[in-house]
Amino acid sequence: MGFLLQILPRQPEIGIIPGMNLRDLEYLVALDTHHHFRKAAEACYVSQPTLSGQLKKLEQHLGVQLVERGRRQRVLLTPTGEKIVAKARRILQAAQEIEQLAQLAQDPLRGELKLSVIPTLAPYLLPHIVKPLKQAFTGLELLLYETQTAPMLTQLHSGELELGLLALPVESEGLETLALFEEAFYLAVYPDHPLAGKAHIQREDLQEETLLLLDDGHCFRDQALEVCFSAGAHEKTSFRGTSLETLKQMVAARSGLTLLPELAVRPDLELVCIPFASPVPTRQIGLVWRQGSPRQEAFEAIGQTIQRLFKRP
Fold first, then answer.
1. Can you point out the beta strands (E) in 11-71?
2. Which one in 67, 78, 146, 233 has a CA-CA gap of 20 to 30 Å to 239?
3. What is the CATH number for 141?
4. Which pLDDT does position 109 carry in this prediction?
């Protein structure tokens, strides 16, 4: 993106003056992201002297200092630099969307698409949907990421990601969501646990039981806690799992019980996974994207394909 922005004086909210190059703004945003000149230069695929020199020219052009120099470790922006970089991010996002609009005018389901999935869903859902999506949308190249909910939403707002697969609801200001399917919860116990022979779990069965839960940051932790507390169970506070697979191993080691989402349930001689009696605790899986995205048509088509794959008989 080497063209110049020509902004009329009556549009001061954009915060750019004639002659400013988008590439300079990319350097500034990269430095704010990495807080390190070398890492910022590597992210922009230029040499460190090039990035540093262009930022000095930008400062001269604006007549203000943007970067605190002389720091050996974490590089910081000045207060003015922080204000300018916030506007720069919005300008770069708008410029990216302009390019996308032009590229996608003929086919919104063509080219790269950055899709992120929460960790408690990615390893269990992706094997079911990647191949059907590739078959349905042959011109689409999925770039897959695994991200917890909070950073995913931040990256969607900033334009680093285009589409997210996660558990709903979420704080949706500035975002669009599409519900896809409901996923039931199961109780995982070791084979000789007193509950292992039950066909269905009643909530009162969990009273006084010790449940193993995920670490903070996983939305499934909050959902499991709600079930846990409503049933009179308690959390094993001395341990928090980093993944569902870790929780499975802890249950197999007889360190407690845990809840698993339906897609994570697998035939396992070391575990017994028991469904809940009605009302069954569930989570709703859905898509989320930024409002105004030029690829909304594509996202809705992807969502409809996933809905068909998980449609209940």
1. 20-21, 67-68
2. 146
3. 3.40.190.10
4. 78
